[in-house]
Amino acid sequence: MAMTKTQKAATVDQLVEKLEQTPTVYLTNFSGLTVEQATELRSKFREAGVEYKVIKNTMLRLAMERIGGYDELFDHLHGPTAVAFSEEPSAPGRVIKKYLSDNKSELPELKGAHVEGAVYHADALEVLASLKSKDELIGEIIGLLQSPMKTIISGLQAQGGNLVGAIQTIADKAEA
Q: With contact defined as beta carbons under 8 Å apart, do 128 and 120 qualify?
């Protein structure tokens, strides 16, 4: 049954809200997957905290036009499209890459992705899958910031230990 204008408007509104709340959007071509394969793929996405759903291209395009900044993805809105929404930039890419590897398949195929304002095209799956999560980046930055401090502290402690040892030696000689 066809959607009414009111239903279509509500769907576009929901998509706008979803796109505004989610920093990572992957467009995929799932055409050719069996029902069993599609179910397995959805399960893998769900385990990774990724929402994966089939969306009509026209609805998605209307939502993207309303927000702006998605113009480069419009060329990819043809044929069957499933969209992966994620908070973590690399999660959908990792799921797709692992699924392709495990099943020795060519589907799902990445059409394009929009990650934190940057647009990636179909050939960027390797790059997307290797992106680090915010937590990983924060951990690395903290490690880099702590490294010089640890060096300084250990240097001061070592010098302090040497100083205490020298004073103790002098004190021992003075007593003798």
A: yes
